[in-house]
Amino acid sequence: MEIKTVLITGASSGFGEACARWYAARGFSLILAARRRERLEKLAEELDVPVYIMQLDVRDREAVEKALDGIPAEFACVDILVNNAGLALGLAPAPEADMDDWEVMVDTNIKGLLYMTRKILPGMTARRRGHIVNMGSVAGSWPYPGGNAYGATKAFVEQFSRNLRCDVQGTGVRVTNIAPGMADTEFSLVRFKGKAEKAAATYEGVKALSAEDIAEITGWVTLQPAHVNINHLEVMPTQQA
Ligand code: NDP
């Protein structure tokens, strides 16, 4: 089998880390991107496939462009891009929301995803193959109190994915938006800025999705035959209202 390369942003924890393990178990080469280099190094040590580590803040456009230009030749043909890096912060009701939190979410969830996509896409269209998986959220289509800016960033991801698919028609490149519901990762700890008790309370009464559930779905989507494009997939815990 031809060895393919997968670039995963936000690979230092949660969905991204689980995706790295999923693809590694199937022999894919990996490019792992996130800010926490030590996490990526530890993960790479555990994986039995070629791994290129890319310490990267996706909000920094110049850094993204430089990092992607610097990918070594043996990893340079990215077959699958999992645009997964993202976060929710605060999620206060709009009148009390912290403008800095809003800005970080926009910069990471929207701009970071755009920087990555714009840089990787031309190689895919030139090779006439590739798959971009964008990690959206049910928050992109289901309003809830405090979901204001976070939900809107994920609505952007969902609609950008649809429009992107139009733009790559005829090139063989596929685009998928995955919209998970509540999943037990470091997401809540980040949202509550390290307050573990509040983070744990998020999952009370619901068996949340696991990172592995989402990795399984992400992997499955990308291993469909080349003529099959799964456009949008919403996945929620059975008990999530
Ligand atoms: P985690 O907090 O476990 O993982 C988030 C990842 O994003 C980390 O690896 C983090 O790495 C990375 N990241 C955050 N900011 C940046 C940045 N500026 N530059 C590069 N990497 C960054 O959460 P999840 O795995 O749950 O989240 C993954 C995606 O799934 C996110 O887009 C999230 O919005 C989405 N999602 C999560 C849900 C959930 O309930 N968990 C539900 C629906 C969607 P580092 O800090 O090392 O940079």
UniProtKB/TrEMBL annotation:
Gene3D superfamilies: NAD(P)-binding Rossmann-like Domain. SUPFAM superfamilies: NAD(P)-binding Rossmann-fold domains (SSF51735). Keywords: Oxidoreductase. Transmembrane segments: none annotated. CDD domains: SDR_c5. GO terms for molecular function: oxidoreductase activity, acting on the CH-OH group of donors, NAD or NADP as acceptor. Residues 4-185 form the Ketoreductase domain. It comes from the Bacteria. Belongs to the short-chain dehydrogenases/reductases (SDR) family. This is NADP-dependent 3-hydroxy acid dehydrogenase YdfG. It comes from Desulfobotulus alkaliphilus.
